[in-house]
Amino acid sequence: MSSNSPKKKIAVVFGTRPEAIKMAPLIRKIRQADCFELKVCVTAQHREMLDMALALFAISPDHDLDLMSDSQTITEITVRALAGLEIVFKQEKPDLVLVHGDTTTTCSAALAAFYQKTAVGHVEAGLRSGNIYSPYPEEMNRRITTAIAGLHFAPTEGNRRNLLHCGVDPERIFVTGNTVIDALHLVARKEYIFAEAALNRLDYAHKKIILLTAHRRENWGRPLGNIYAAMRTLLSNNPDTELVFPVHMNPVVKEAAHRALGAVPGAHLTHPLDYEPFVNLMARSYLVLTDSGGIQEEAPALGKPVLVLRAETERPEAVEAGTVKLAGTEKDQIVSLAQELLTNKAEYEKMARAVNPYGDGNAAERIVNILRAHFFADQEKQGVAGLYSGY
Ligand code: UD1
Ligand code: UDP
Predict the structure, then answer these.
(1) How far apart are CA 97 and CA 148, in angstroms?
(2) Residues 6 or more apart from 154 whose CB is under 8 A from it?
(3) pLDDT for 4-27, tens place per residue?
(4) Angstrom distance (rounded) from CA 297 to CA 181
């Protein structure tokens, strides 16, 4: 930064647990850079699950829209986030708004910034499933955010190619790795004592722990029923296996989970775990079954095989690397793939290798360096006005 350049104001906006976890390393790095003024704005589309991550990473938001309500609809989140963020952006007048990923907060924040003619940077850009209804509404949120953003931070080369395919200017795409790996490095420990007594009591040495999470909207109803039925069969066929299922707080997911698995021997249903115990539980599990996006990125880095409970994934890299398999949402297929991994050691070992297609843990630093170069190096060469003319 040249001595007479004023600081640039960056507003980082997020609203849910995964966004908070993945933005936390970037917030740290922006804070450390002397050329930026940081404003953290949370919509609080999630409340408790967001607050867990904010507390862990010691992030105190400058603005908190506190918009979560019980069983909220996508429309409600969008409308309230747009209205709330308009006020924040008018007051703060940031030079850049940074959003993450694919939630309704992401898309609303990008749109709210666009309405103020404020530049948008998209972290975790370029993921695509090719189906606008799966994941729903995330795939459309990504596409809209891509259309608005002027800087695209793509985790992988494949994500970069997706963006090029959408007509994004190659000079505005930066392959950085995924900040989730930065976050993982901050919390994964060799030795770890859980605060939750139930997790300490599990016999990790002699039992095979299956870790399950499931929350996606397109899995509500029959697919979730199939997944739970598959878990009951696996537990009853494999007495050396236990299931740990930290249940998402979405009431649709929570009620169905407790009804289907609450009383099943060997099934341990918990509240959502803090990120630190969750990662360390994943590291001690035998197998991960999930429809989560972030967990598909973390588990391969920890050498844990993942069965994805979806028909497709916008994260094909770990599938190609051999640690993730698409299991779909039909009971028989889930049981058969999991059973193979529980009993066939060679098959298990083939998948249980630490691979890390999503980054080296330095994504946040890379993004901050790119932002510095854009705001200051370019500024000296071509003037700020030239910076975001690529819409
Ligand atoms: C949201 C995102 C999804 C993301 C997921 C990560 C949208 C539309 N969905 O889904 O992309 O993968 O977060 O977890 O953007 N709830 C609480 N406390 C919390 C969080 C949620 O009680 O801390 C309950 C509330 O009743 C809330 C409901 O869950 O209304 C749904 O939350 P919402 O953010 O709308 O959807 P998610 O299913 O969490
Ligand atoms: N996670 C957590 N506690 C839990 C379950 C998940 O901290 O009980 C973390 C997980 O490690 C990952 C993120 O939350 O970083 C994923 O969030 P989620 O599955 O809700 O959203 P998605 O990634 O599917 O958008």
Answers:
(1) 11
(2) 125, 126, 160, 162, 163, 173, 174, 175, 176
(3) 569 999 999 999 999 999 999 999
(4) 8
> Which-ligand-closest: CA of 247?
2
348-390 residue pLDDT tens: 999 998 888 999 999 999 999 999 999 998 555 544 333 332 3
Residue ranges of the chain with pLDDT lower than 70?
A: 1-5, 378-391
Q: Pull the structure tokens for residue 180.
A: 């989730």
Residues facing 267 on adjacent strands:
243
**If you take atom 13 of ligand 2, which residue's CA is the nearest one?**
18
**Annotated catalytic, 34?**
no
Reply yes or no on whether 196 is catalytic: no
16 in contact with ligand 1, CB cutoff 6 A: yes
Q: State whether the beta carbon of 68 lies less than 6 angstroms from ligand 1.
A: yes
CA 141 to CA 104: how far, in whole Å? 7
Phi and psi, residue 239, nearest 5°: -65, -15
Amino acid identity, position 30: I
Q: 160 near 337, Cβ under 8 Å? A: no
Closest-CA residue to 249 (of 71, 128, 106, 122): 71
Residues contacting residue 268 through CB under 8 Å, at least 6 positions apart: 198, 202, 242, 243, 244, 245
Pairing label, strands 36-42, 8-14? parallel
